[in-house]
Amino acid sequence: MPGKFLRLTRSLRFQLAFWNAGVLVVLVAGLLLLLYLGMRLLLQRELDQVLQEDCRELEQFVAANPDPGELEKELRRKASSHEAQHWFAQVWQSGSLVATGGEMPEGALLGFDDQMDGQQELMGYRVVQTTTGTLRIRVGSNLDFLAEDLARIQSLFLASGFAVAVVSPLVGWFLSARAMGPVSAMLGTARGLDATSLDKRLPVRGIGDELDRLAVTINQMLDRLAAYTSSQRDFVANAAHELRSPLAAVRALLEVTLHKDRPVEEYRELMQDLLEQVESLAGLVNSLLLLAEGDAGRLHRQGATARIDQVLERTVEMFTPVAEQKGVTLHLDSLPHLTVVGEPARLRQVLSNLLDNALKFTPPGGRIDCSLKPDSPLHPAWVELEVADTGPGVAEQSLEKVFDRFNRTDPAHLPMQPKIGSGLGLSICRAIVKAVGGSIRMENRPGGGARLLVKLPCS
Question: 205, 212 in Cβ contact below 8 A?
Fold first, then answer.
């Protein structure tokens, strides 16, 4: 039981209810206190106003009937009609007391300033004095009835405050339940999420409050996770498919070799075929390992830099014989001396894949142009490497897919051309470029052909 209560007190719903109740009690207590003080002040002002009206009434009576005997009767009449308030009055004419009415406790006016007009409070009495010419009138009333009214108001306010203190936790619990309802729905959906049900999404109420923004943010994260998980599944399935073919070929070659005795030359041919299949398999495995390192963020060595102009020049020199044999012109613009972030071997691999890809789809008589363009001639922060060919280009809807793993997008206008390669070259390029903080994209040239643009940070 104590453990359950401790868990309850640690829950967000309990804390919201507690704070809601606390805030409500403090606000109500403050409001009741202000009301009490305001009503006390209001009652005192009303009493002062009534006593001042009594003074003006007596002034008018004296002006209309200056007989002291009649004035004495009027004061006794008023005192008897206000007996519950212990009302009293005193009238002076030219400094002499001419009439009194009502009874006052002895010493009630002790310390009263006879020369000061206005209201004063002495010995539980409220006294008002006015002076008009030689006439001075003093009227007072006991404050007991006022204290009784304030006590009744105070009791009412205390009862109201106690009721609020009792009800506010229940109201806070109800409000917290309403506030935590969407969170509970989110938790229920989150509990049901696993690797096989990433299609579920948190409910969005459409109000646009913080909970809706939280749900939208989490849903966007789930979309990214679902897309990543789907791509990983496709990657594993495609990798298994790609590995199956060379392994099947290796197994078939080994079965043929062991089926019967053969001449040495025939064994040598079979071993050569077997070696080619193993090399193809090794290349595929190395490509898969490189992509796995890219996913793990281990492709870039911190502090590594490379002269991109030298790397590009040497790579073009290496592919020039292949281009000449195919009848393709491989052109290299004059290169500025630029140092970029990245390892030379990795960048050479990127350039090799780009040139190899361009050569595959550039027909004989075509042209491949390579260039480097810094963003600033003096202090460049970025450099853009461009490899442009005069091949058929790529369909617009496939420009983003060319970097997907195991993608073999048919070139535009040549849909029947056999698909070439494993479909990992451009994926490897993107992984290496992304690892150094760069970007890569493909676009079609206005005059025909495609170009790959690689943006690399300068060191």
Answer: yes
Is residue 440 a part of any domain in this protein? yes
| pLDDT reported for residue 105 | 62
- DSSP codes of every residue in 337-353: --EEES-HHHHHHHHHH
Residues 373 and 239 in one domain: no
Contact assessment for residue 420 and residue 357, using Cβ atoms and an 8 Å cutoff? no
Which residues of the chain fall short of a pLDDT of 50? 1-10, 412-419
Domain that holds residue 317: 305-457
What pLDDT was estimated at residue 1? 44
Number of domains in the chain: 2
Handedness of CA 212, 217, 218, 223 (dihedral sign): positive
Enclosing H/E stretch for 129: strand 125-132
The answer to whether residues 348 and 290 belong to one domain is: no
The pLDDT assigned to 3 comes to 47
pLDDT digits (tens, 9 = 90+) for 5-47: 444 444 555 666 666 677 777 888 888 888 888 888 888 888 8
Pair 362, 420 in one domain: yes
Q: Is residue 355 part of a domain?
A: yes
- Of 49, 20, 208, nearest to 130 (Cα)? 49
For residue 205, give the nearest of 195, 215, 196 by alpha carbon.
215
- CB count within 10 Å of CB 282 equals 11
Chosen domain end from 277, 295, 313: 295
